[in-house]
Write a structure and sequence with these properties.
Elements lengths: L1 H4 L5 E2 L2 H11 L10 E8 L5 E7 H25 L9 H9 L1 H6 L3 H7 L1
Antiparallel strand pairs: 1-2, 2-3
């Protein structure tokens, strides 16, 4: 995710910073109020530390392939689930069980799942 987010300008951040970015401004669906974050990293071209401002749309783009894979897996799971088990709909069951941790890191994932 990090290298894709910082392709322009070429900026590298550590694993801990990447996780912090995902937790603070990561989203799977466009937010009502856009979020930004200042991130310190190393400029890959100049090799010096640099601070850049990124927004939630950059993170969403970087996470889009992963989110699409998760959405597809949820669809497949729901298609294979017997009707009597999925009677409450995808939101209730997925919210309680399958997406508990994901919901915390990708705040808008359930909104996207409901609309798809």
């Amino acid at each position: 995710m990090v290298l894709q987010v910082f392709r322009e300008p070429a900026q590298q951040v550590g694993e801990r910073t990447a996780e912090q970015i995902k937790m603070e401004i990561g989203s799977a669906y466009p937010l009502e109020k856009p979020l930004t974050m200042e991130v310190k990293g190393r400029n890959l071209i100049e090799g010096v530390p640099r601070t850049v401002t990124i927004d939630d749309s950059e993170i969403r783009e970087a996470l889009s392939e992963c989110v699409a894979t998760i959405l597809n897996a949820c669809r497949v799971a729901l298609e294979r689930t017997p009707p009597e088990l999925s009677a409450d709909g995808p939101t209730a069951e997925l919210d309680r069980k399958m997406l508990l941790d994901l919901r915390d890191s990708l705040r808008s994932f359930l909104t996207l799942l409901e609309r798809k």
